[in-house]
Design brief:
Layout (H helix, E strand, L loop, with lengths): L1 E3 L3 H20 L2 E5 L4 H13 L8 E5 L1 E3 L9 H8 L21 H16 L4 E7 L22 E4 L7 E4 L1 H4 L2 E8 L5 H8 L20 E6 L4
Parallel strand pairs: 1-9, 2-3, 2-5, 5-8, 8-9
Antiparallel strand pairs: 4-7, 6-7
Helix pairs in contact: 1-2
The protein binds 6-phosphogluconic acid.
The site of 6-phosphogluconic acid (6PG) has 14 residues, from loops.
Length: 228
């Protein structure tokens, strides 16, 4: 479903509140997957401004859909960005926050370690809410067009897109193990990527538009201020 909204950050924040309350009511916990990029930062500010003391945070578990293979203090770290912009202001127990580990040796070791972390904490349980972005080249998480990463099996993968450093990502299959998926797409700069990803086609090219390979168990929504 495509929801064209004036304020993507506010719509995304409201969705998180809704799914958190529903998940905790039904299962006693809320498992959310954050993405990187700049769009989520506005949602984080909205959440902190009005909901930093919400009771559900203490029952919230946080994962990342992808990460750059850099130390957490590096400016490119998705975990580092979320910690500064959101987590440091919330009462989420640190043992319920699961960053990808840079110190796990090489990128493949970091990917294997995260797969183990997923297995040990969730087994094959679905995430309750997964946020994803869309690059202007139509990548999502770190599944970049032209790399074939969208076809990778298993839970995690290492992607080396030209000029983008080394990336760690959940696979399309594991991302699809989500009750709800929300793609956050803001700005006219994403129009072409959004159109390429959502335009009806009999023969989807998953390597060119990786987001097409991602489905949700209950609801997949595109929150965007772009009117196609
Ligand atoms: C990353 C993200 C990436 C991001 C898109 C959109 O690590 O860079 O996970 O997939 O979501 O590039 O980024 P913006 O929100 O900045 O447009």
């Amino acid at each position: 479903m495509i929801k064209t909204v004036d304020n993507v950050a506010e719509a995304a924040g409201a969705l998180l509140l809704e799914k958190a309350e529903e998940s905790i009511r039904e299962r006693g916990r809320f498992v959310v997957v954050l993405s990187g990029g700049s769009t989520p930062l506005k949602m984080y500010a909205w959440l902190i401004e009005g909901h930093a003391d919400a009771p559900f945070w203490e029952h919230t578990h946080v994962f990342w859909g992808d990460e750059r293979f850099v130390p957490h203090e590096h400016p490119d770290s998705n975990y580092g960005a979320a910690k500064r912009a959101l987590l440091d202001a919330l009462p989420i127990p640190s043992e319920q926050v699961y960053p990808w580990l840079y110190g796990a040796g090489d990128p493949e070791g970091a990917a294997h370690t995260y797969a183990d972390t997923l297995q040990q904490t969730l087994a094959d349980a679905p995430f309750d809410l997964t946020f994803l972005g869309l690059g202007d080249d139509a990548h999502t998480a770190s599944l970049f067009p032209g790399t074939g990463a969208v076809f990778d099996e298993g839970l995690t993968t290492v992607v080396r897109p030209p000029g983008k450093g080394t990336r760690l990502s959940l696979t399309a299959r594991r991302l699809s193990r989500s009750r709800t998926i929300a793609f956050l797409v803001q700005g006219e700069g994403k129009r072409d990527a959004l159109s390429a990803t959502l335009s009806p086609t009999e023969t989807p090219d998953f390597d060119r538009t990786p987001a097409r390979a991602i489905s949700a168990q209950e609801e997949l929504v595109w929150l965007t201020d772009v009117t196609l």
